[in-house]
Specification:
The protein has 631 residues and is α/β, with parallel strands linked by helices. It is built from 25 helices and 17 strands. Helix 4 packs parallel to helix 12, helix 8 runs parallel beside helix 12 and helix 14 runs parallel beside helix 20. About 2% of the residues have low confidence.
């Protein structure tokens, strides 16, 4: 990007405030160009951030950050915020290892009021921050910015309900980029909202309310008139029911309207719902035409919007293999239904939706509801497959335990993005699923070593009379051919790939391929390593494992899950319960910390969840416990 006229001088929101309002549209253009250029190289959430450029400029123009606090829901629309708060010179490092996070992070900047990444948390967090400020006798402002998609989650309404009851000074900005709440109000509502939020009107409204409250019948009459008028011209009655004063909708790309209205409401002192309508992908034609694709996108050509092709990427993704397999099985079994939480494309269910529209259910960003909804379907004789990212299943832990597993209902959880997902970082790594699911009775947990095994595991799951979870990684599969017909796997049975005399590697999921690579490299060093594809984390095939470790008592467990409570812990517990003694175990997995963002290869190497990490573990075992331990 070449020299900018205005952006180059903005190091903080204070610099922004020095600009006259009439030049802000040009600044918005410069910001958009920087976002497009950067994301075309690093990948990221392009369309959401392009849609909120003017809104973000207006918020920083009106409020006084960092004393005032802005909480960005999810945070994928916060790129302009980062640029305006002293990070423009580092924006080129977005989502790269050691660079800027793709989401708001408290540890990254004092301007990031709350760490985000998962949906629908902003109102609850904002209510807590506003309450804390009140207790601290701090009169600064709190603004929660939430998208209409995030308003499908119950947590958002819990936050609205409590905030309205508390009557705290919180401004909730509803960024409506799908026109799903109010597509038909337009200029009249913009005009009314600007006029009805003017300070003189708001002061008059409060004073008039006080006068009329002494005459209840007249007050009720005028209150009813106001509500009827608002219901006629705006969609605000829902929010008024939560004791929020509703303002909007406002065109989210008209900086003059945004700034004027925000100036009017900033000192209201009561809960405000500020509804703004925006265009997702605004200012970049490919993103405006296909906002779903550009919601979260890899690198692309700016001129065309076409993705940059990765050389050598011939194998399908695990997501696509799952998507094809569930369609294949659903053709033969009309009891199979699919459930997703606002991620039909991301989880590979687009083809299922097209072929079986009456058996496909997108519940919105409502994972808790989605899991219990699936349990209800299972109770009626169906076999739901809940396709969900590993990190988002965390949000529905109680529903998995209480509503599905307690009664042993046949629900399959297809957990995409298991393990390290890369550039989206700690809020999106699937690092904890084995640990939090392993403790739940009745649940069978599997992880495939390749795409053919994923297909077989899904086939096994939809034919299993009980709850199952299949965990598979993001990205390209191994490249093995699929079997002509799927196979039922014997539940709880491991697969011995190679026997070994010096060390035995027990691996699950993508770590099986790393174990096979480590075995070859260890053989070059004269070390005989066995490899067992355990396949099932629960139940473990203790018969196979016990036989192997008795013969080769140096054991390495390999997983890309947190070590604490994960697969390696399960093996240690099983060995102890089986009474097997004299075994030395080294666990390869993720440490007890949140893993940062970065390219998956960089992260795997750093944390040792690759073939080299397995080799190092093997060499240490052999050094610490030499061959005589076999005797």
């Amino acid at each position: 990007m070449g020299e900018t006229k205005y952006l180059k001088d903005i190091k903080s929101p204070d610099d922004l405030k020095k600009l006259p309002m009439e030049v802000l549209p040009e600044l918005a253009k410069e910001v958009r160009e920087l976002i497009i250029e950067t994301v075309s190289r690093t990948g990221g959430h392009l369309a959401p951030s392009l849609g909120t450029v003017e809104l973000t400029i207006a918020l920083h123009y009106v409020f006084n950050l960092p004393k005032d606090k802005i909480i960005w829901d999810v945070g994928h629309q916060s790129y302009t915020h980062k640029i305006l708060t002293g990070r423009a010179d580092r924006f080129h490092t977005l989502r790269t290892h050691g660079g800027l996070s793709g989401f708001a992070r408290m540890s990254e900047s004092p301007y990031d009021a709350f760490t985000v990444g998962h949906s629908s948390t902003s109102i609850s967090a904002g209510a807590g921050i506003a309450t804390g400020k009140c207790l601290n006798k701090d009169c600064s402002k709190v603004i929660s910015v939430i998208g209409d998609g995030s308003m499908t989650a119950g947590l958002a309404y819990e936050g609205l309900n409590h905030t309205g009851d508390l009557k705290k000074d919180l401004i909730v900005v509803l960024n409506d980029n799908e026109m799903s709440i109010s597509p038909n109000v337009g200029a009249l509502s913009n005009f009314l909202s600007r006029k009805l939020t003017a300070k003189t009107f708001m002061d008059w409204r409060t004073e008039f309310k006080g006068i009329l409250s002494s005459t209840p019948n007249i007050y009720k009459f005028f209150k009813k008139m106001e509500e009827s008028f608002k219901a006629f011209v705006t969609p605000g009655m829902l929010f008024e029911a939560f004791e929020f004063q509703y303002i909007g909708p406002i065109n989210g790309h008209r900086l003059d309207h945004l700034i004027k209205t925000l100036e009017n409401v900033k000192n209201a002192g009561t809960p405000i719902l500020f509804h703004t309508t925006t265009v997702k992908g605004k200012g970049y034609e490919p993103a405006e035409k296909n906002p779903t694709y550009f919601h979260g996108v890899g690198s692309f050509e700016v001129a065309t919007g076409n993705c940059c092709k990765i050389s050598g990427a011939k194998a399908p993704s695990y997501t696509n293999v799952f998507g094809d397999a569930i369609v294949e099985f659903a053709r033969e079994n009309d009891r199979i239904v699919a459930v997703t939480a606002a991620m039909p494309e991301g989880t590979g269910l687009t083809n299922f939706h097209d072929e079986f529209p009456t058996r496909f259910f997108d519940v919105g960003i409502a994972e808790q509801h989605g899991v219990t909804f699936a349990a209800g379907l299972a109770a009626e004789g169906f076999h739901p497959v809940v396709a969900i990212y590993s990190t988002f299943l965390q949000r529905a832990f109680d529903q998995v335990l209480h509503d599905v597993c307690l009664e042993n209902l046949p629900v399959c959880f297809a957990m995409d993005r298991g393990g390290l997902v890369g550039e989206d970082g700690p809020t999106h790594h699937g690092a904890f699923d084995l640990s939090f699911l392993r403790c739940i009775p009745n649940l069978t947990i599997m992880a495939p070593k390749d795409e053919d095994e994923l297909r077989n595991m899904l086939y096994t799951a939809v034919n299993h009379n009980g709850p199952t979870a299949i965990r598979y990684p993001r990205g390209q599969a191994v490249g093995v051919p699929l079997s002509e017909k799927p196979s039922l796997l014997p539940v709880g049975k491991a697969e011995v790939l190679h026997e070994g005399e010096d060390v035995i590697i027990l691996a699950v999921g993508r770590m099986v391929c790393e174990a096979l690579d480590a075995r070859e490299k260890l053989a070059e060093k004269g070390v005989s390593a066995g490899v067992i594809n355990c396949r099932f984390i629960k139940p473990l095939d203790m018969e196979t494992i016990a036989g192997a470790v008795k013969k080769t008592p140096r054991v390495i467990t390999a997983e890309d899950n947190a070590l604490m409570g994960g697969f390696g812990s399960a093996v240690l517990e099983a060995i102890q319960e089986a009474g097997v003694t004299g075994v030395r175990v080294s666990r390869v997995g993720l440490p007890d910390q949140f893993v940062e963002h970065g390219a998956p290869g960089i992260l795997r190497a750093k944390y040792g969840v690759d073939s080299q990490g397995i080799i190092q573990a093997a060499e240490k075992l052999l050094n610490d416990f030499p061959l005589k331990s076999n005797g």
